[in-house]
Write a structure and sequence with these properties.
With 255 residues, the chain is mostly helical. It is built from 9 helices and no strands. Helix 1 packs parallel to helix 3 and helix 2 runs parallel beside helix 5. It is elongated and about 55 Å long.
């Protein structure tokens, strides 16, 4: 029961993170073309901002996926969400200064490109880390459902981002960016408080447990080390009982 509760909390944190990340991304994609004109950007300059961000997001995702295998899912998620919150707050401050007339259009454009690039690199880690985390805490039978939850979270975020751009951005774009930053902070807090890094070898860490063929080789309190019993000392010939695919998985886990 406790393990199930931890899994449910982690799934909630992952879903919230993807929802809020997609909210921020969709909001910026929808609001930037009209907002860019108010800030003094040309359509080409706005297109450059969006194109660079898409390229960096695509390029950074595999790197973050590799890092999630090396340092863990949770650190990657926390780093990415912190970057999303800081970037949204930075956008809000820049927009406020520009609309107040205290910042030039050239400086505003340069800062937008810089912050958007950093945001794209940071947020590229959210989806691969969330998917890997979901795979870690679900069994093979539950995995498709878990990935479906993440997909639904992304869809919900797209709806919320468009609604935020529609309702808030036309009157106060700086406030809209502040809302996105606050949402990212809440997602950061949910991962920090609810999502533990799955421990290697834990029952809910799917993919790190020994294959079924090896489980009979472990010492058993019922059979001890009797010859022929499940607790007997493993012999070299026992490897023949392990399917080739599971041997490959054991080699990967040992690296």
């Amino acid at each position: 029961m406790e393990a199930r509760s931890r899994t449910t909390k982690a799934q909630f944190a992952l879903s919230l993170s993807l929802t809020i990340n997609t909210t921020g991304q969709t909001f910026l994609l929808v609001v930037l073309p009209p907002l860019g004109r108010r800030l003094g950007f040309t359509d080409i300059q706005t297109g450059i901002i969006l194109s660079i961000s898409a390229l960096l997001l695509m390029a950074s995702a595999p790197v973050w996926g590799y890092l999630s295998e090396r340092i863990g899912r949770r650190p990657v998620l926390l780093t990415a969400l912190a970057g999303a919150a800081i970037a949204a707050a930075g956008f809000g401050a820049i927009v406020d200064l520009r609309l107040a007339g205290t910042m030039s259009a050239v400086l505003t454009l340069g800062l937008f490109i810089l912050i958007r690039a950093a945001q794209s690199i940071a947020c590229g880690g959210i989806l691969p880390a969330a998917q890997a985390y979901m795979a870690d805490i679900t069994t093979p039978a539950q995995r498709a459902g878990g990935m479906g939850i993440l997909g639904a979270a992304i869809g919900l975020g797209a709806i919320l981002g468009a609604a935020l751009a529609w309702q808030v951005a036309p009157t106060d774009p700086a406030l809209a960016f502040a809302i996105v930053a606050a949402l990212a902070i809440s997602a950061f807090a949910s991962v920090l408080l609810l999502a533990r890094e799955p421990a290697r070898g834990a029952p809910n860490y799917v993919g790190r447990r020994p294959p079924a063929a090896c489980q009979d080789m472990a010492p058993s309190p019922d059979h001890g080390d009797r010859p022929g019993g499940p607790g007997r000392i493993p012999q070299p010939t026992d490897l023949a009982r392990i399917p080739i695919g599971e041997v490959t998985q054991l080699r990967r886990d040992a690296r």
